[in-house]
What we know:
Helix content: over 70%
Number of domains: 5
Radius of gyration: 30 Å
Oligomer: single chain
Amino acid sequence: MDRLFELIGKMSQTEKAHFRKFGFKSISGGEPERKLFEIILKAQQKKPTDPEPLVKLNYAQLGRTDLVRMRARLFDALLNSISDHDRQKHDVYEFSQLLLNSRTLASRGLHREAKKLLRKGAKLASDQQKPHWELLFGKELNAGEVSHGSHSSILSSIDAQLDALDRTKQLTLLAKYYEMAFHIQRSFGQQREERKELEDQLREIEFKADELDLEECPPSASFNRIMIRQVVAHTLNETESALKHTEAAFQLMKQHAEMARGREQVPIALLSNLINDGLSAGRFEYYQTYKDELKFWSASIPSVKNYRNAQVFRTQANAALYFGEFEKWSELLQSAETLREHLSPHVREAISGQIVHMMFADGAYRKCIRLINDLLFETKALQREDLRTNLELLLLSTHFELKNMETVEQLVSSLTQRQKSQQQFTDQESVFIHLFKKLPYATTDSEQNQLFRDARETLQRFKDSRPLGFFNPTVWISAKATRQPYEALLKQHYGIGIRQ
């Protein structure tokens, strides 16, 4: 009974309406199941914690004694109805219906009408970038022409199939290049200093994608190529370039609304990225221009609405960071927990990394340590190198601020071992770790300050391109060397309060 209650409780209003209209398919018309369904709904409204006694009482008042059998039949009927309802949302349902209807028309001799449906399906598959369906409709068209068409129409249908095959090859290669770039981004995150081998890989992927001939392909192919450039720019921390590509992708999606069919979350993600890329590039007018459009973006499907709300939170979190409102970390942390299931893992971890950085800048060291430890445990599965390494460096600094020198020594030892075995740290990060090897042996404030000044002088030889969302070891060392608050120097370093 609990499973039945849980299933009904999770059904959307449209699923319930679909079930009432189409879900009762038994010989008796489903009257017993219908009554039991309504009884459960009313009981859940009155006693949401334990509706079972009320359901049993109300069902018995109908004069029926078959509750166990009827609830099993109702459970099966619900599953079938929900499955049938969900199928209508997917392109496979629409394509299959077009294919089936065209065959029905052809079997009745209505070949012209059947051909129209097949051409409609092929056009729809092309627009939605579904090459396998486009090929299938092409084969059906060719079969129809062979049976009932002229010689020229048969040749024309064969040429259409060959064109579709060529487009399929181009689109498949494009998808391959996108996945390659996306894998690098998800594995290593944003580009860190001196990781030139990653840049070479990404540039090669971008070059191969640009070489593809997409002239005969649908607009969605051009969209995917733009997205490859965007992923490369994001990974290499090229903020202006990323902003340009994101805006181009968003405008293309608005021009060709059919590309969002079945992918309602894509324009929302693009709009969110457009705002966030604008913030990263210091173009705050994008935030002011598009924040309300994102907040009130039309979303009738619950999952899309939840996704939109999560993206609104993402832009608010980034805005708080780029506007220097570090004290908002507590409010953001609470919102992140509320929207946790609606944020993709890599976005959730990136935002959490930003929040702990804001905690540190605000001086909430103990809470910062607790959240960093939680994140490091989670990011072991994600294997995102830039985030994991940055959190470890931030953890070192936080323990140092709390004078936990024994813990500092243990963490440095662990990092040093990994540095020797994996060689994954940049020159700047290596300077930072080397500094912490010496700090426990500096017995006076004067000695510690000299170590910070020496490290600062060494770091001045390196270009600092670390994004604001990450803890910046160079700025922290400068703050210690000059005895200034990290928050103040961080805002000065990134021009916070000046660019707004």
